[in-house]
Amino acid sequence: MSTLEAPIALTIGVVILASLALHRLARAFGQPPLVGDMCAGLLIGVVLNFIGKAFENTSSTLANSTAHSLVHLGEIGLIFLVVNALFHAPRGNTETSGGASDSKAVLLITLTNCVPPFLVGGWIALQYASAHDLPASPAFLILIGVSMSISAVPVLAGILIELGLQSSRVGGLAFRAACWSDVIGWTLVGLALSLHQNANSSNFIWTCLVLVITIFAILKTIKYLLVRHQPGQTVTNQVILIALLIAAGLTQLASLHVVFGAFLVGTVFASNDTIRQGWLSATSWITDRFFCPLFFAIAGMKLLSSDEFAMSELGWGFAFLVVCVGTKLLPLYITGRWVGLSKPESQLLGLMLNTRGLMELVVLSVGLSSGIFSPLQYSIFVVVTAVTTLMSTPLCRLVQRRL
């Protein structure tokens, strides 16, 4: 065994073991499973980062090699996380009484969930860039706006199950609006990456757009053939796996990041219950208990240590947190009342869509790896993500008592 294999295997084993223990602790406090995994992974990542810096002078080469290998492994796991997040989204009776009127309500809630946070987030990003003498690139402004407006569909699904609201009207409206918000968000992420890679070439953007449309059309054709010929679940999973890796690789070659290819695969195949359930039965365990803790730990390892933060950055972090919460809760409360929800239901709507969790961490990781975000900006928004996610379930419980 080489000197590099043992630390990587040992690190992964410690991450999974500690994540499992802290996962159960978080569940004891009434948080959804994914929230427990997120908090455990981030905490473990911070500890690993501290240990790595403590021994940086004595084993820097070994530590850097281990971290480099973990990041590559985490990138592979990331595409499984995105696909399974889309596949885990509950299907079924999210449309309750209201029918067509609920479709209009979902559209209105989706716009309210996206537009105010995106616009205000872009404005405060401009102020931040101006105060730090940074170039306010379109890609930077777009990613800030997306991170403000996105909602975590996997965490929201866990909250709905935790509170028993998955069959309620407010739960259905919130979930469907979150799904559409993520579609809009990931489209904007693709635009931001295109602008960042070649901001002066409209041909580059059009090339990326043609590539995405082509991949989407091919995936739809593959899905049609699988549904029509029904080759068996094992063959179906193998086909999806190959399509997932190729789509992620092609989008990465086009400078759109691997996540965008995974999003296209998840969007296409998640609509078929047979394909979705067969894939989840084969991959859920390895994704939930291996890739998920590892991704969160790697996200925590990228955080800056406390001595690298200035007091002014804490002020900016608080400002971003207030904007994130304020541009969700108040507009969504007003919209909830407009579409016929009661006062407590409208409060629940804002609180549930305020959770960001896994999806924002993925966006932040994309921004950091592509160079759009600096480590400092990444760290600020990871803290904002953790706070807005942790506050959702307890506050929803308080409001739910009034229903």
Features:
single chain; 403 residues; mainly alpha; Na+/H+ antiporter like fold; globular
Tell me about the largest β-sheet: none
Radius of gyration: 21 Å
What is the N-to-C succession of helices and strands? HHHHHHHHHHHHHHH
Tally of distinct domains: 1
Helix and strand content put the structural class at: mainly alpha
Determine the number of helices (DSSP H or I, runs of at least 4 residues).
Answer: 15
- End-to-end Cα distance: 60 Å
Quickly name the level 1 CATH class: Mainly Alpha
Q: What average pLDDT do the residues reach?
A: 80
Q: Low-confidence segments, ≥5 residues, pLDDT <50?
A: 1-6, 58-63, 92-100
Q: What this model shows, in words?
A:
- It is a single chain.
- By secondary structure, this protein is mainly α.
- The protein has a single domain, classed as Na+/H+ antiporter like fold (Up-down Bundle).
- The protein is built from 15 helices and no strands.
- α4 packs across α7 and α8 runs parallel beside α10.
- The chain starts with a helix and ends with a helix.
- The N terminus is likely disordered.
